[in-house]
Specification:
about 550 residues, alpha/beta, single chain, TIM Barrel, binds ligand GBH, disordered C terminus
């Protein structure tokens, strides 16, 4: 037998062994592909006023308006990770993942939001967590801002007031100084669309302002500038010695044209530009700035509505330059797909005027046949993940992507077969996108454990670990999906037990229409291409 033949047989044998003698070989991830799990401070920590922690806008919302939560609950205690961080790290170890993505609570560190008062108990808590992770070779990935704004800053108008840019950069500086010697992946701001539109335009997230059409664009403007300032600070003062990566995490559902009609294809493009492009175009496109289609539509609507200027603020050429390229990777959170069609001239969808939805001009719906989850907005449609990744690839010249959140909700305790199917089918779609050229560096499952799901309270759960919220220690138990995810991580392969993939057909994105609408969009990017590797300084 020739050498290369025995080599081939040997590697096939190894592959089979790695897959645990499955009946057929499951698709595999490259060896340097990173796996992780995520959580966020307000959702898991509890200890809302322990050891000097100050109040955030979520403390205010849940305490003053409990009726806004589906089960009138709050996260005063929740999974109590403030006391259970050792067990949390043990769970991350059990899963065998490379990364734990968590966020830092601004008011645990800076109780009233300002650097004039740094809470040493907050510093100690995150030091403990970070050190325990590193002791077990797990890379901490820290989200600087996951929605829990200091209440004091909200009194100044929160993200609608440009002073936020300085204050959030001050806060980030403390994080780099205190933790940057050990934290090598940072994301600045989690899901700007949710912060701005769900927080200011409607009343779904704190501060629940319910003021459509104006503040959300002011918020977006400041979020983008703040993100850029944090990244410039890191790159100038910390990255040269600390050598970490920093990026943003943006979210969208995939917007699938409801029918094959040109109008519906235009709706798909409009939705992706308004949800994702609003924050991605200024950072990742060749020319920077908001998507042209967004500028044009909001300018025209504002004029027609009698505003003397556009409700979408303008960036100066210097600001456009300062924001563009400020992300070492493209962090994307995505859970589901929506079907889209155009609103019509009569505004039949009855959107408030002015409003984000009226500006976007898209009506969303679901396919009755889609599988359901515990969240009304979340239907598992794995092909949507493929389509979204391909859209990002094309629109922003194939940036290195980290899927920073993906997961599904249920209420089934530890027998979460739907979640097992969800992760396998979404990961299979991600592999398809990688086969078709997308640079996907890593995948972070949402979520490590059951927790407070914002206005849904505890009525729907995303955890790989079940949390018994009625027990004193908030006992954590691995679900079927945790065991399955650990196998995926160990073998770097999909873990199908059944014979078939649930959704084999991939619906390709209508790329022709894409070109018609955004004819001046990016085809290539001068942004430095930084490839994340498994080698993080701190482990060397
Ligand atoms: C992410 O947001 C968050 O980053 C994470 O904290 C959260 O736990 C996870 O997803 C699951 O929701 O009226 O449709 O707005 C994703 C977006 C935020 C979508 C909450 C649903 C409430 C219902 N989700 N939102 S909606």
């Amino acid at each position: 037998m020739k050498f290369y033949q025995s080599l081939a047989i040997a590697s096939v044998t190894v592959l089979y062994l790695q897959n645990g003698w499955c009946e057929k070989l499951n698709p595999m991830f490259p060896p340097d592909f990173l796996f992780g799990v995520g959580s966020s401070a307000y959702q898991v920590e509890g200890g809302w006023n322990k050891h000097g922690k100050g109040e955030s806008i979520w403390d205010v919302l849940t305490h003053q308006y409990p009726e806004k939560m589906k089960d009138k609950s709050n996260a005063d205690v929740t999974s109590d990770s403030y006391h259970n961080w050792r067990r949390d790290v043990e769970m991350v170890r059990e899963l065998g993942v490379d990364i734990y993505r968590f966020s830092i609570s601004w008011t645990r560190l800076l109780p009233n939001g300002f650097v004039t008062n740094v809470n040493k108990h907050g510093i100690a808590y995150y030091n403990n967590l970070i050190n325990e992770l590193l002791r077990h070779n797990i890379t901490p990935m820290v989200t600087i801002y996951h929605w829990d704004l200091p209440a004091r800053l909200q009194e100044l108008g929160g993200w609608t007031n440009p002073v936020i840019i300085d204050y959030v950069t001050d806060y980030a500086k403390i994080l780099f100084e205190q933790f940057g010697d050990r934290v090598k992946i940072w994301t600045t701001i989690n899901e700007p669309w949710h912060i701005c539109e769900q927080g200011y335009g409607v009343d779904i997230m704190a501060p629940a302002m319910n003021f459509p059409g104006i503040p959300s664009y002011l918020c977006g403007h400041n979020v983008l500038k703040a993100h850029a300032e944090i990244v410039h600070l890191y790159r100038e003062r910390f990255q040269p010695t600390q050598k970490g990566k920093i990026g943003i995490t943006i979210d969208t559902s995939y917007a699938q044209a409801k029918t094959d009609s040109d109008d519906d294809k235009v709706a798909s493009e409009l939705a992706l530009q308004f949800y994702l492009g609003w924050f991605a175009h200024p950072i990742f496109s060749k020319n920077g700035n908001y998507p042209q289609v967004m500028i044009d539509r909001i300018d025209a609507n504002s004029k027609q509505q009698g505003f003397p200027r556009s409700r979408l603020p303008k960036f100066t050429p210097e600001e456009i330059k300062r924001i563009r390229g400020t992300s070492d990777f493209f962090g994307i959170n995505s859970y589901t797909t929506v079907l889209v069609t155009r609103n019509d001239c009569n505004n039949s969808a009855n959107f408030p005027i002015p409003s984000f939805n009226h500006d976007m001009d898209v009506v969303e719906s679901f396919d009755e046949n889609w599988t359901k989850s515990a969240s009304f907005w979340l239907h598992p449609v794995p092909s949507g993940m493929y389509n979204l990744l391909m859209w990002i690839n094309k629109e922003y010249d194939n940036p290195p992507v980290i899927i920073t959140e993906n997961g599904v909700s249920d209420n089934n305790g530890v027998n979460d077969t739907d979640r097992v199917t969800y992760f396998n089918s979404y990961l299979a779609s991600i592999l398809d996108a990688m086969k078709d050229g997308c640079k996907i560096m890593g995948y972070i499952a949402w979520s490590l454990m059951d927790s407070f799901e914002w206005t849904a309270g505890f009525s729907e759960q995303f955890g790989l670990y079940h949390v018994d919220f009625s027990s004193p220690n908030k006992t954590r138990t691995p679900k079927a999906s945790a065991k399955m995810f650990a196998r995926i991580v160990r073998h770097h392969a999909i873990d199908w037990k059944g014979p078939d993939r649930p959704e084999p057909s991939i619906i390709k994105h209508p790329s022709i229409i894409h070109e018609q609408i955004i004819n001046n969009s990016s085809k290539s990017s001068s942004r430095a291409k930084i490839v994340l590797t498994k080698k993080f300084e701190v482990h060397d």
